């Protein structure tokens, strides 16, 4: 009998994603280091050596190559490149050149994020993106980097998750600078998105062939009681606020009312991207509660009796909900009127024992395949993450790696998911045989609406 399979388009990018602070180690000149020093990391740990990439990233790149990844997403540490305002550290640039060269020699496309939550202390001390002048500093750094590294990289992500950066840092107060101020949250969002637009045009001028975008974190919010109009309303408001108002502002330059009435528009926003980066992890269920106006009258809960992440020390990691990836891709595509290709720039699971990750990864990839079959031009998938790394406020408490790290000894131990991901990348497909070995219980779910036909990679939509 013929094996069933879900084949991905030729040229599909397969890789993992990471960030400088979480992997490099020794980053002591940014606002997250200061946060650590203030004792704000919930696990009480220090990032320290992290995954030691500043010294030995290449050893992990080799591991990614063995998994037949053809791409790898990493970020640059602005605070290393510009440690003091206007001063550039050529040694840091040389280190990044060596990393990018190594990736290219391994035939992996480097995808480089220019801002992944951390920024130099001198910049943070000037009120970071809360000031309109921040845009000028950010663009100057970006232009410097592209001049220095543009011969080795042409796939850029200007910003990682500006919505998480602004909401956690300025509204919830659980990321630095730890503020809780609605108006400043939107000022920061507006300025950082203006930074993206300015960076987009700066890169476009220096490197006309570059692929340039940013990624947002998309969470789903569904009503706890599907029959309750109040739960529905509260869930809709949360989803609109966290995901869609930010996407809409990025697309059109204007925030919805009331923020839109108070803030200047993001100039030049329309068209300032070559692709949409989608980070997706989880969904939450929302119950209307009149006593929590600050939470838009919605209490967020994790669905009971379902596949879930290892809990962290905060409420970040909840349900593992594969269909959500399809729903998010479809919604981003619809809301952007299909104007650009999409990349899943992050998706992953905290699962130290690796008991759920194989099935979770297979089911998410099956939903991604479903999106491609539905005509949504998804052109790559980046798993968070290759190795365990320092998970922001959770430190080493939660583990997202395909490969486990002993933080004391730096010893690496691949989890089963690593070899499974490698087999999928090698085959450019999910085969029945792979599912049978790693998560037989998911077989029918994965091939339920299968198609053996290879979906065609969509034409390059960049110039349409
Ligand atoms: C962030 C990563 C983080 C991951 C897991 C994403 O929102 O971009 O830096 O490690 O979530 O929490």
Mean pLDDT: 95
- Could you describe the largest sheet, including whether it forms a barrel? 9 strands, mixed
Counted up, domains total 1
Unique ligands = beta-D-glucopyranose
Give the helix/strand class. Answer: alpha/beta
CATH architecture: Alpha-Beta Barrel
Low-confidence stretches: 458-464
User: Overall 3D geometry?
Assistant: globular
CATH class: Alpha Beta
Q: What string gives the helices and strands in order? A: EEHHHEHHEHHEHHEHHEEHEHEEEHEHH
- Percentage of residues in strands: 15-25%
The CATH topology assignment is: TIM Barrel
Number of DSSP E strands = 13
What would CATH call the homologous superfamily? Answer: Glycosidases
Tell me the helix content: 25-40%
Layout of secondary structure:
Layout: E1 5-7, E2 13-16, H1 20-23, H2 31-37, H3 53-66, E3 71-75, H4 78-81, H5 90-105, E4 109-113, H6 121-125, H7 134-149, E5 155-160, H8 162-172, H9 182-206, E6 211-223, H10 229-252, H11 259-262, E7 276-288, E8 298-301, H12 323-335, E9 342-346, H13 357-373, E10 378-383, E11 403-405, E12 412-414, H14 416-427, E13 429-431, H15 432-438, H16 443-447
Parallel strand pairs: 2-10, 3-4, 4-5, 5-6, 6-7, 7-9, 9-10
Antiparallel strand pairs: 1-13, 7-8, 11-12
Helix pairs in contact: 3-5, 7-9, 8-9, 12-13
The protein binds beta-D-glucopyranose.
């Amino acid at each position: 009998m013929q094996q069933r399979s879900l084949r991905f388009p030729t040229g599909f990018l397969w890789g993992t994603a990471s960030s400088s602070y979480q992997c490099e180690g020794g980053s002591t000149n940014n606002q997250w280091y200061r946060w650590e020093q203030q004792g704000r990391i919930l696990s009480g740990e220090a990032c320290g050596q992290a995954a030691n990439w500043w010294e030995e990233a290449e050893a992990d790149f080799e591991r990614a190559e063995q998994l037949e990844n053809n791409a790898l997403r990493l970020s640059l540490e602005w605070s290393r490149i510009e440690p003091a305002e206007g001063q550039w550290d050529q040694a840091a640039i040389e280190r990044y050149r060596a990393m990018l060269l190594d990736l290219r020699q391994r035939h992996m496309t480097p995808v480089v994020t220019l801002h992944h939550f951390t920024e130099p202390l001198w910049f943070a001390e000037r009120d970071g993106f809360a000031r309109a002048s921040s845009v000028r500093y950010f663009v100057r750094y970006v232009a410097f980097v592209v001049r220095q590294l543009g011969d080795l990289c042409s796939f850029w992500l200007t910003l990682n998750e500006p919505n998480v950066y602004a909401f956690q840092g300025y509204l919830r107060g659980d990321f630095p600078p730890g503020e809780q101020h609605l108006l400043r949250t939107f000022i920061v969002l507006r300025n950082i998105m203006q930074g993206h637009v300015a960076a987009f045009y700066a890169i476009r001028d220096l490197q006309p062939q570059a692929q340039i975008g940013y990624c947002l974190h998309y969470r789903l919010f569904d009503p706890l009681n599907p029959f309750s109009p109040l739960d529905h309303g509260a869930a809709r408001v949360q989803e609109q606020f966290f995901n869609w108002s930010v996407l809409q502002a990025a697309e059109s330059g204007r925030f919805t009312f009331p923020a839109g009435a108070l803030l200047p528009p993001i100039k030049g926003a329309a068209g300032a991207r070559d692709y949409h980066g989608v980070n997706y992890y989880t969904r939450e269920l929302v119950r209307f509660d009149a006593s929590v106006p600050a939470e838009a009258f919605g209490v967020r809960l994790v669905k009971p009796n379902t596949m879930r992440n290892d809990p962290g020390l905060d409420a970040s990691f909840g349900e593992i909900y594969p269909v959500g990836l399809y729903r998010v891709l479809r919604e981003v595509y619809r809301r952007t009127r299909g104007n650009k290709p999409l990349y899943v720039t992050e998706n992953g699971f905290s699962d130290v024992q690796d008991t759920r990750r194989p099935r979770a990864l297979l089911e998410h990839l099956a939903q991604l395949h479903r999106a491609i079959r539905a005509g949504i031009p998804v052109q790559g998938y980046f798993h968070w993450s290759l190795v365990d790394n320092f998970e922001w406020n959770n430190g080493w408490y939660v583990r997202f790696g395909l490969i486990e790290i002993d933080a004391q000894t730096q010893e690496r131990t691949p989890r089963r998911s690593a070899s499974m991901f490698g087999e999928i990348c090698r085959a450019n497909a999910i085969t029945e045989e792979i599912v049978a070995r790693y998560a037989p219980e998911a077989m029918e779910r994965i091939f339920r609406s299968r198609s053996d036909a290879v979906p065609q990679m969509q034409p390059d939509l960049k110039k349409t």
